[in-house]
Amino acid sequence: MQYFKSVYFSDYKEYHPKSKGLVLAFGEPDEKIYRSIAHLTSAEIRNLAGIERYRQLIRQSAEKNYTVNQFLVEKLVKRITLDSIDSQNSKINPIHVTFRGGKEHFLHNWYSYLEGYSPKFVEYILDNYAKSAKVIYDPFAGTGVTPMVAAYRGLQSPYSEVNPLLQFLVKAKVDVTSLEYGQKKKIIKSLLLIHRTIDETLYNQIKDNQLIESYNNVFEKSKYFDDKTFDLILRARTLLDIISLEDQLTSNILAVAILNSLISSSLLQRAGDLRYKNKNELKNRTDFLNCIKSNLNNIITDIELSEQLKEKPVLLTEDAKELAKITYQHIDAVITSPPYLNGTNYIRNTKLELWFLRYLNKKEDLSNFRKVVITAGINDVSASKKTEYVTKSIESTVKKVQSKAYDDRIPKMIADYFSDMKKVFQGLSKHLSKNAIIAIDIGDSIYGGVKVQTDKLLVDVLESIGYKLEKSIELRKRISRNQESLHQVLLLFSKQDVKAADKKRIDKFNWEKDWGFFKKELPHKIPPFSKRNWGHPLHSLCSYQGKMKPSLAHYLVKTFTRPGDMMLDPFAGVGTIPFEAALNGVRSYGFEISPAAYNIASAKLLRPDLNSIEDTINKVEKYINTNKVTTQELKSIVDFGFNKKLPEYFQKDTLNEILLVRRFFQKNKPTKHADFLVYSGVLHILHGNRPYALSRRSHGIIPLSPTGPFEYKSLIKSLREKINRSISTKLPSNFTEGKMLFQDATLSWPREVNDLDAIITSPPFFDSTRFYVANWLRLWFSGWEPEDFISKPKQFIDTKQKKSFDAYLPILQLSRERLRKGGVLVLHLGKSKKADMAKELIKITKNWFSSHDVFEENVEDGESHGMKDKGTVTSHQYLVLT
Questions:
Q1: 3-state secondary structure of 747
Q2: Mean pLDDT, rounded, for 582-610
């Protein structure tokens, strides 16, 4: 009997144009070998044999006077016999439980990370202890070794990872290996072009000023790069942004090559903790540009060799401690290596990369990340966190260390580490299938001469909540800095009657009665709430297309929150929902990616300071009176506009004042309420059909083609009148200030947005009009240049959802994680003939939410902001997820 296995080589078609790949034939004596490699991908077989190109195989087999089939099978026999892959009693090669053990494996070397294991380690666990597993989970995914190995085997591989850098890295790997052949070739072509031209291209970019500002905020006077390297890094950030506007994946892959060049070209060294390089290390410091090109070479080769993923790994949660919140996952195996209790600060060790990715913008951002990681480093210790001794053995160890430790934080670090680990595995317990296996790679530690037997203490913790230790296998010996003997072990657990943190499901919600009332009565349609001008005057601070009716926002907030609650609107627009929350005593956050909407919403969520408002207006007036418009400013707008060219909207003196105020706010970014309010006032008076409008006669929401005479209108006069109207009505006594964040909702959310009672939002409808065209004049004033109207809309969800509703996956994942237990996600959506948004979102939310309700409200006869709705939306949908 014969067995066959196809093996693909990138250059195979050069020799056999009509064949897809080499078909290896195994005779009956080689059945055992065939069984050992049948599940492997072509890349893994090539790696196992040590042959990457078909031309190598031809040459080496000819030298031995073998056929290609004979030679490759013999190579595999030798390697498999050597590694004893199929032996239940075999020992794991110690090199495979270290990161460097995977250096020959494709995708593994994209980013040099000291912590972790090799793909062979995961393969060993799968082959020996989880043969029938279908869903493999890693709560500490790191660079993605476990999820990628599992995905290539066609297994579902959800994962968690709290570090945004590592999330970014895994996503880049997943995205590129999910491509079809033609798409992959296109990416390779783009990367090869970048590799050839990057020297010249990089020097032609401008430096990213935002990155300079964040560096100074976060690192202050610390110098981590020489001047030349720092200059190139700033230009590299700009280059990535430019590439991303046309091809986000190419930009992300180039970013990985750059990220992997930061430390090696810096003045720092990652050796355990991040520290300054010594003299010898400085001599061997790599050149930034050369390092990028070397990394790109490696990445391009890996992409060429990679095959398309059989399954796509899913980021289940960022923080594995939040697993209890999500819906049942049916996990069959866990393969992971938690942070070691070794004092290493895993976030601090990646601070340069996090800064480059714009996750560090102010000094407290680092500490905010440290608050959510497993407490494994001294700097992760929080004095505000109550110390909990999970077991007696941990308490005994901590007391021994207290008398010897050189730092008072170390004993608390040990106690908090095991407390955090207990939360992870309690939350995990509800997701484990009946015969699930849990494989944990862990090492012990030593402090002040006191051995902290992390593996044994972790066994105590897991057994205390119902797990059963099946086996402990020593993987390798280790030596501490003071030459003490340490070891690394593999702990294998099975699921028993695990005591979950909270097995109760919240079936009754405190808003259900109010939700029933909303559906029955539609109170926002009943007078006085049905009036177009209902609500606080600040709702009309600046007209804006697509804005939700304040009365609807009022009742959604009133239905799903209570005074003192905390809520988020991740598509806040001009802040209608967060502002209603603030008016009702609810602490609110809002995310917005449009600079115009962000500034308008910010003005609504802060308490006014009348003296500061007048001071800001005076500064604007002084700037107008003491500055002149440049020729370049006038030239840049001559041919710019959508309905008509921009100069056709204004009398020339009025236009000059607008240009000067635009420049003023570009130089003086709003930071306090008065700035936001005055800025928003200018946006409102830019165009309209009322006497206050600075434009010729147009429309207050959309800058339709202007008509009528060119008349001078004083910007300051109209602005003062507008501001006085806006602040004429006082805020209620229970007004609770909120906070707007200039944030893309599809990217990792700031850590301060957490423990939410509700997320209430209205994302752009699938059939919505192009908002950037409707708001083009206000976006221009807010800093957009003509070219931005071509590129920037590609970043927005209303563009992304046209390709796939998968654009909402990170929003759903982050929503579940940041909501408290019992929290609710409410989505106000639009249904049309083109898309049933609620139906599409329910399809992809199963990992995180249950669909509590879908309610539809017919709006075919409705009005929108004084204009008949010309879109195709037939009903509004309310999707309630719990």
A1: coil
A2: 96
